[in-house]
Amino acid sequence: MGAPRASPLHAARAGATIAYGLSLVAVALAGTHPLVLGTLAVAIALAALRCGVGREVARAARLALVLAALIALVNALVVREGLTVVLRLGGAGPLGEVDVTAEALVSGLLLGGRVVVVVLAFALLAAVVDADALLRLARRASFRSALTAVLALRIVPVLARDARRMDEACRCRSDAAATGTARGRLAVVRALAAGALDRAVDVAATLELRGYAARRPAPRERGEPWSRHDLSVAGAAAGLAALALWVALGDAAAMRSYPRLEIAGGAAPAVLCAAIALVALAPLAARRGIAR
Amino acid sequence: MSALRLERFSYTYPGAETPALRDVSLVVEPGEFVVLAGLSASGKSTLIRAGCGLVPHFHGGTASGRVTCVGLDTREHGPGDLARACGTLLQDPETQVVMGTVRAEIAFPLENAGLRAAAVARGVEEAALALGVADLLDRSTRELSGGELQRVALAAALAARPALVLLDEPTSQLDPVAGDELIWLLRRLNEEWGTAVVLAEHRLERCLAHADRAIVLEDGALVCDGPPRAMLEWAADRAPALQTPAARLFAHAGLRPAPAGVKEARATLRAHGLLDGAAGPDGAGSAGDPEAGDAGAPRATGAWRRLTGRGDRIPTALRARGLWHELTAGRAILRGVDLRLRPGERVALMGRNGAGKSTLLRHLAGLQEPTRGRVESAGRVALLLQHPGDYLLHERVADEASSAALAAVGLTGLDERHPRDLSGGQRQRLALAVVLGDGDERPAALLLDEPTRGMDRAAKGDLARRLRAIGAQGTAVLVATHDAEFAAALAERVVLLADGRPIADAPAREVLAGGWHFATETARILGGRPAARPALVAEEGGDLLRARMTVEATP
């Protein structure tokens, strides 16, 4: 959950920010042109830095890169299409003859790149969207499910703190060595789970005391007025959605992996990428507003 | 219509053999400030939970009699319905807050009540301003301190402007400053909004002066109900553990009536000519007296002593030499701390939150590596951290520690009990047995971090006795505490820490008699008149007052 109102994405209403993130994902899913994927990754990274959540997104990127490498490797070993053989591995048991083709290798890398972009977009969303605002947004559809999700998010750092404390306590025991054994570790896990249940019961009692069980539906009323950040982020989301359609239906980012690699070139992909970068970063360049 | 009414109410928790509340009848009128007193497991928390409907709706169990909260019968209305009439605050700030930001937390009960957005926004603003949390509104609840969390939880409980607020030891997890602030806040709410307050609390000296009435529970039954002074008079005969230090001081001096607070005690003593608003409490300088110069300040080790090594001939159980704890970002938590504990010495480590007490204990126990300096010890260093429950991993008491260790802390006969079923004091003792281990490998030093949080006075007294016994066997005892009364009862020496370094290191009598915040209640009451030997605890204060009375009476 992000720090409140630290950037235009934080300040915009949750609906607009979620639409913005999902539009980025839509562009990535619409095509696998390397220029488009690269542009998206750079745009998301710049957005994360501008919003002060670079560290959170970088953490997700590390995991995504490992996943991408795995996808590329598996794709290269498993896919039998492509005409340009770059490596002959010979017989590999149940896999039969394994020939690694340049097309399968590039296709795997681009699939991995797509996964990286999707993970980065969701990491950005998780870092900038206020979970409480999300809960408010989902209130009418499924309040209880949304609240459960929010509470799960809230209890995670509490349990992490409990685990750290218990780890320290274990190191302070006179029989500290015993807790290092498999049986000892099991006892720690069991105690932590019991503690988590206690915590959950306490939180449930608090929910009761705040009137959650006897919840009354709020009357329908006009929503809040749209701020300039709401408008610019929602506008960017709409623009990205339009670009995603262009990628999916047009030829600007056309790409074919098999039997031979064919990637659209010329000015069209460059124009498309410039448009994606411009639209994605435009709301973050907002400099209007009153200094004090 | 009364704010809270219990009529012959009895309640037994599911699976329990004895009732937690027995035939309790009481009425709290609108606008009253009531303190609920009693030892641990006397039924205070159950009564609070019965008032807000958690008992029996949330906990189950068997109930008889009737509880009415602002006219709503809890047999027909659950906690959700009662939430609009009655705000409730429980002990643990961590689990009292369910949302991500302070604004969302305060808005949550109002949204649950189905209010319009404008009404919710107004309720949030009003509650935040009244509770002094307006500057926290856009902060994440994860970033808040315990005191801030508890204030935010109180704001959420009061956002719907209930006629009654029920509080179950809300200060037990807070440091004294945050605890005092919370009590003052309750008094302001009571006076300005007319909110009836029912406050269950162990530290009566903190809240009795603000109360209109005090109720005492014993084994689930109501045994005393009256004004604070009357309750203290009753406690003098029937429940000495519930007496405040001021009341015990007066009882030992043979003075009546028992005062409800420091101000009242000083007024009575002044009226008797036993107190005159003169200078410091004693002739000798004290750490808290700004005029006292460097008395009590830690003495620098002389160069000659370092060269000759004469200082090192002193037997040492545990020693920190020039200990630094510097964060990567640059801030230093400990700044060159030198501290030596002799075998069997009992030392209290005091200081405000963030002064570095817990960090110092972690370094001394080897849980952390200092950036500079070193720790030397004559043997194993045992550390009991703030939450004793963290030490308890097994399902039987007997599996946690040896029978010798259990016997040493007075837990014989509880072998088959589940550690989570023990009382707070028993759990503390079990954790103590876990860190102390068997008798044949007794630690050179025992360190305890805030061991008296949430304890009643009887349990504190018991802990002090056990720690004195451990000290008598040669183990040095170092206790980080905010509790000046406990420090006075236990420690021979007090080290005052501020901004990561000791600013006073002197005998307890010197440090705890002269301070303002770091002083016992007895010292604060008697602090107006010089004495050769300042009194720290009620018994000493009583003797001092009797001596003064004898002098006054002599022609």
Explain what you see.
- The complex is a heterodimer of chains A (292) and B (555).
- Chain A is mainly alpha-helical.
- Chain A is built from ten helices and four strands.
- In chain A, 67% of the residues lie in helices and 5% in strands.
- Chain B has 555 residues and is of the alpha/beta class.
- Chain B folds into two domains: 4-243, Rossmann fold (3-Layer(aba) Sandwich), CATH 3.40.50; 316-380 and 443-539, Rossmann fold (3-Layer(aba) Sandwich), CATH 3.40.50.300.
- Chain B has a six-stranded mixed β-sheet with strand order 6-7-8-3-9-10, sandwiched between helices. Chain B has a six-stranded mixed β-sheet with strand order 15-16-17-13-18-19, sandwiched between helices. A four-stranded antiparallel β-sheet of chain B has the order 2-1-4-5.
- Mean pLDDT of chain B is 87; it is low at 278-295.
- The chains are: A mainly alpha (292), B alpha/beta (555).
- Chains A and B meet through helix 6, helix 7 and helix 8 of A and helix 3, helix 4, helix 6, strand 15 and helix 16 of B.
Task: List key phrases describing it.
heterodimer, A: 292 residues, mainly alpha, 2 domains, two-stranded antiparallel ribbon, 10 helices, 5% strand, flat, B: 555 residues, alpha/beta, Rossmann fold, 21 helices, 19 strands, 21% strand
